[in-house]
Each structure stands twice: as structure tokens, then as C-alpha cells.
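step=predict obj=Pyrophosphate--fructose 6-phosphate 1-phosphotransferase n=413
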Amino acid sequence: MKKRNCFIGQSGGPTTAINASLAGIIAECIDTQQFAHVYGMINGVKGLLENKYMDLLEIFKSTEDLNHLKHSPAMYLGSCRYKLPEFQEDPQTYQLLFQLFNELEITDFYYIGGNDSMDTVAKLSTYAKTIDSHIRFIGIPKTIDNDLMGTDHTPGFGSAAKYVATSMLEIAYDSSIYKLNAVTIVEIMGRNAGWLTAASALARTAYSDAPDLIYLPEVPFSKKAFLEDIHEVFKKKRSVIIAVSEGIRNENGEFLDSDSKYAKRDAFGHILHSGTGKVLESMVYQEFKCKVRSIELNVLQRCAMHIASAVDLDESFEIGRYAVKTSMAGETSVMMVFNRTSNNPYTIECDFKDVTSIANLEQRIPVEWINEGHNDITQDLYNYLYPLIQGEIAITYENGVPQYANINHLKND
């Protein structure tokens, strides 16, 4: 029987777990013994259009190799921020891609990424149908924002949530040592969905109740209520710690940092919020005249392998494996998803859904999981988040620092 050949790509922002999904795909391709070539796109579809790819079976030949990849952060294959045009508007782009697919006798196409990456999978699979191509197009989710529709949660989120919770606990310790009034504002990623900021509540222990206040983009932000909330906390303690999503909006739906000098847009037109913490810092200082600092976790929360969630990495690996099984079963134009089958004990199963019904939609926190005061989360949301950050991994160190996969192939020409 003629063997299969596949392409794997990674796209969008990096995470701690995206290489685990890549490792899962490679592992399953090897185990089936039905793949002659497993090609990796260098820098996603954008790199593929420039004929940049590598044969991963020549590099990863053992379980040890794959475990090393699984425990390496960011994106081994590199990424891109490329918006694939509609094929009616730019048929040449599609013709170029499918010409390469035909030359390499590609049977399966796996793309690991977030919302915009699922849009790419949807467009390629739709075009494939118009030309009667039999290539199977499969999307594998990843995003620290946890905002992809159709899945209980996304690979990469659990590890980022664990980093946020750990950082919040350490900030609480740092802030507890002085006998003076102080406010610490921690700005956390989340353009429209506050899942990561909500995860800061996982830092609370029997001896630390930080964060004292949590503000999410799913509900309107009120300056007046915000300052009143801080006044109330000051009645009980001298140090106030606040978690805030970068994308919070006022009652008029305007981003708090819209007029900030830091406001920028990415390749897809999304506002890159950076400055919300500073806006709030100034606001708090004017009101309380106390020590105020804002901390922006920024990209640090994306690829912190040293504090990765074992649950996240294991699930990410398995969803990669299941993606191969799904395409080999004849499915196409789907995104792999997690279905939570039990919360206590926590169990999930892998499944898939039509990618065209998922792409370009956002999963936000249900309003009923946010408290009435709009300054904290409910127990239901805590119970949803808690299982996703469980377990630790063992990292290999060399010369005192983690030893990750070699990415020399991503260096500039």
C-alpha cells in the first residue's frame, strides 16, 4: 500500500504546550508506520509559500527525541502572522500551495494554532473541495487565551494559567513584607476573554488571599466602582493586589488604554493592548497617594516551561496523536477539541468539530461565572480552572539553565 505524506505547521503566538502537540503528531505518524514523510513547515503557511520546510522524521527518531521536543517551549517550527486571502480574491496563492502538495504527494495537513489558524484550515479545506482534492485538513487548537469555541479548553492555556497563579502568589509574598499602604496591579493577557486573568484566583491559599480584586473584559469596567472596591479592601488590609485583563473596557465599550501611546495593532488588525496597568496605576495614585506599582506579565506567561502544567502537556500530546487518527479515518475540515466528561475526578476525551463553525468566533467567560460586583470570579469558574494546572514536569538542565530543542533552523538567513 502506498504510504502517506503530511505537512505540519504552527502559527500564531507561542505557548508552552504547542510543541507537545507537534510531538504527538510525529509520534502517531511513526507508530502507524504508514507515513513516508512528515514535513514541517518553517514559519507556517507563509514559510510554505516560500518553499521552506523540513522532514521531521529525519530529526525525531526516538521517544527520547520526542520527549525533548514535548518539553521545549514556543514553536519548534517557527510561526507566522499570515492571513490567508479568500481563494476567489487570490487563486494564485492556493494554486501555488496545492502544486507543492501534489509534488510531494501530501495526504494529510495538520495546522496547530489559534483562531486565525483555524481560519486557514477552513479556507484550505474549502478550496480542496472545489478542486476535488483528497487531502485531509485538520486543525489542532492552541492558545493561552483559551478563547477558541467548540472545545472545553485549549492546549497551552493550562500552563499559562499555572504561571499566572504562581506569579500572583509570589507577588503576594513580595508585597507582604512592608508595613505601609500599597497597591499592586498585575496586568494579564486577554484581549476579549479573561480566562488567564481569572486564573489568578488559583493563587489563593489558606495564608494568602491575593488577588483581592479581579477585573475581566467580559463585563464593563467602572472607574468609580474600582476605586470604591480598593477603599473597601483597605479597611481590612494594608496591601491590595489586583489582577486585571489587558482588554478591559469602560461602560461605553472603549478599551481603557485606547488613547495610550502604547496602543498598536497586529497583522490581523487586533489592538495590541499594553498600558492598561499604567492607566490604572495613575488612577489609583491620584486617589490614594500611596505606593502603587503596575506589573505587566506580557510574554513571560506564554512559554514558561519551568512551571508548565503536566496535565496541559499530556493533553496537548494526546490531541496531536488523535489528530492523526482522525485524518486517517477520513475526516477533514475539522478542529480537534476536548470534551470534559467529569470535573471530579477530572477527565476529558478528544473529539473533533467542523472547523468552519468554529473559526473566527471567540469563547468568553460566561457572565454567570463572574460575581455580581464584577470584581471576582465564582466558585464554578474556580472549579473549571483548577484541574488544568495540576502536575509538574521534569526539565533537563545544562550549565544551570534548561536544555531545550535546537532551533538553529529558525535563525535568519
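step=describe
The longest helix spans residues 157-175.
step=end
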